[in-house]
Every structure is written in structure tokens, then in C-alpha cells.
Write a structure and sequence with these properties.
Elements (H helix, E strand, L loop, with lengths): L1 H36 L4 H14 L3 E3 L5 E3 L2 H9 L7 E10 H16 L5 H18 L1 E3 L3 E3 L4 H13 L6 H23 L3 H5 L9 E5 L7 H21 L12
Parallel strand pairs: 3-6
Antiparallel strand pairs: 1-3, 2-3, 4-5
């Protein structure tokens, strides 16, 4: 009996140790597939993935020092409309994450520059997704701006399929709409909304400033994953409606 238990136990230990590697491999392959769907070659897609992983560890400050109050022009606007919104809050440091924000923005710009998607259509899709994510986002004190994980990618995929004239452009429109729309709606527009910063950083005895990073948790932030999942969802819809292979619809970048 013992001779049977020991090999089974060893096999179980090996599987448990291998699970993280399996998840990492699947994540990399799924992300590479998304970048290939919007027109990047295999090596370019791999470079994007690893660049995002490395960039997720880097936050760039938007300014020196901390913020403890709204700018003067916003205070004047808030005073013009009587409200109970506080104008000061716990010290905040605003940052930009490279992997979760800058990389998706650069990829979106490159797609527009190479005409992988109509500029007007992609920007309109980004505005629609920005409005949806802005309305659905919710500031959580000492945590950040939260959003149901399924809302941005599903919204971007549906918007891309509805707006695109040819199914071949849907994945690229989905990526741009999802990435730029979520970035603007969930992060930028919310941070500029009076009352959100005091809600995120209420007065606290905690001595250190609260770090708010646009792009948040890097590759595991909603912005990066929204682009990836929106592309895969849009590609799936294209395949179902077009009755063809997703792989055959790729447009390689020259």
C-alpha cells in the first residue's frame, strides 16, 4: 500500500509545482495570440508581451512631490456650485505604469499609424467604451478605482463588431477601443471628477502618501487585459459570423 501512496504523492507534488508554470505559459500564449490577431508577427507579439511584463514593474511619476488639494481652477468651479465635496485629501502620488498604460497606448497608436483600423471608427469606439467604463467605475478608499472585470472587454468587443465595416478590422478596433476607452473612462476621467480623489484618499493616520498608478497593476490591470480579451472576443465573434478561420484573417505587419 505504501508503495502506491509514495509515487502518487510525488506526482501530486510535481503537478502542484508545475501549475504556476502552466498558468504563466498559457497567459503568455493567449496574450501573444491577441497581438497576432491585430496584425503583429510572432516575434513582434512576443516582444510586446515581455515588454509589458518588464514594464509592469515600472511606474513613472506624473509630477514631483504629492498632491493634497485640487488645482485652483477646479476649486473655483466647485465653489461656484455649492456642494459638500472636500477640496483637500490625504497626500496622493500620481504615477503612470509602463506595462499597464504606456505599452497599450503605443500599440494603439501604432495600429492607427499602420491603418489597421479606421481612425474615426476606432476613436468613436474608444469614446463609447470610455463612457461605459466611466459610468461603471467606482472609487474604493485606499484601494483605487474598481470596475467589473467583464465590462470593458465585452463592451469593446461588441462596439468593434457593430462599428467595423469589415470583420477584418474588428480585432484592432476592439483593442484600441478597449485600451484607450478604459484608460480614459475608468482612470483619467474619474481622477478628474471632483470628489473622486477625496473618496480614494480620505483623511488617514497612515503617514505615507497613497500611490495611484494609471495602468494600475501593470499587465494584470484592467487596461492591459481589456485589450487582450477584447481582441480574442472580437475574433471569436468574427469567426462565428464569418464562418472562417481566425488565423486566416490576420493581416501581417510589413
Amino acid at each position: 500500500m505504501l508503495e502506491l501512496i509514495i509515487p502518487f504523492f510525488l506526482l501530486l507534488v510535481i503537478l502542484l509545482l508545475a501549475l504556476p508554470l502552466i498558468f504563466i505559459y498559457l497567459f503568455i500564449r493567449i496574450t501573444e495570440e491577441a497581438f497576432e490577431q491585430i496584425g503583429f508577427g510572432h516575434w513582434h507579439a512576443s516582444l510586446m508581451v515581455f515588454g509589458s511584463v518588464i514594464g509592469s514593474m515600472i511606474d513613472i511619476p506624473l509630477h514631483s512631490g504629492v498632491i493634497t488639494t485640487y488645482p485652483a481652477f477646479m476649486i473655483d468651479m466647485m465653489n461656484a456650485i455649492p456642494s459638500d465635496i472636500p477640496v483637500s485629501f490625504h497626500p496622493v502620488r500620481l504615477l503612470v505604469n509602463v506595462g499597464g498604460c504606456i505599452v497599450p497606448v503605443l500599440v494603439s497608436i501604432d495600429l492607427l499609424r499602420r491603418r489597421r483600423a479606421p481612425v474615426s471608427t476606432a476613436l468613436f469606439g474608444a469614446v463609447v467604451v470610455a463612457f461605459i467604463t466611466y459610468m461603471m467605475a467606482e472609487p474604493v478608499p485606499n484601494v483605487g478605482i474598481t470596475l467589473p472585470v467583464y465590462v470593458p472587454p465585452v463592451s469593446a468587443a461588441l462596439v468593434s463588431v457593430v462599428l467595423c465595416r469589415g470583420y477584418r478590422t474588428a480585432p484592432a478596433i476592439a483593442y484600441i477601443s478597449g485600451s484607450i476607452g478604459t484608460l480614459l473612462g475608468a482612470d483619467v476621467m474619474n481622477l478628474l471628477t471632483p470628489g473622486v480623489l477625496p473618496a480614494l484618499a480620505p483623511p488617514s493616520a497612515y503617514p505615507r502618501p497613497l500611490a495611484l498608478s494609471i495602468g494600475g497593476a501593470g499587465i494584470f490591470d484592467g487596461i492591459f487585459l481589456t485589450g487582450v480579451m477584447a481582441v480574442l472576443l472580437a475574433s471569436l465573434v468574427v469567426c462565428l459570423l464569418g464562418g472562417g478561420s481566425c488565423r486566416s484573417r490576420r493581416v501581417p505587419i510589413s
